[in-house]
Please model this.
Amino acid sequence: MLNNSKEDDGKEFMNEIGVIGKIHHVNVVRLLGFCADGFCRALVYDYFPSGSLQNFISAPNDYGSFLGWQKLHKIAIGLAKGIEYLHQGCDYQILHFDINPHNVLLAENFIPKISDFGLAKLYLKNQNTMSITAIKGTLGYFAPEVFSRNFGNVSYKSDIYSFRILLIEVVRGRKNIDMVQEHFQVLYPEWIHSLV
Model:
């Protein structure tokens, strides 16, 4: 079930249906159906009992929830294949704009499935840069060029940036965003900059 406000005109919902309906890959969720009854909207996917990757981000010494390096490697490779398919395997280049652990569902045997295509955009394959009118994505995961054109042009590399942040989270076993007293702090770009 999607949470939609009465001000929502349904564009994001219809966009998601349009994009995901064209995708058929083992590492991308498959849309089975949808419901649009006024402001009540739902997408129907397979059931994923393990939930999202967000549930499994933990330090290696947390033996209760750490998946192990082999499973994490398999998840990372599956995600990379899914993103490659979105960027190169479809008739159009699909930019997700919201690659983060919440949007990676885990099927049986921890096969990762990219989900939530509400912010996704389709572009011609030969198009190197894209124009967007608003910031898209989740705080801490969107690329700097999505926030400001001073950092460069938006392209498929914006999804790759988000994927790298996700991988760092998984490997370190820590989330990229720290919320202290309702103040968000993005941790990894600053941490990586200090290492360089």
Summary: Residues 179-184 have pLDDT under 50 and may be disordered. Residues 49-195 form a domain with the Transferase(Phosphotransferase); domain 1 fold (CATH 1.10.510.10). DSSP finds five helices and eight strands in the chain.
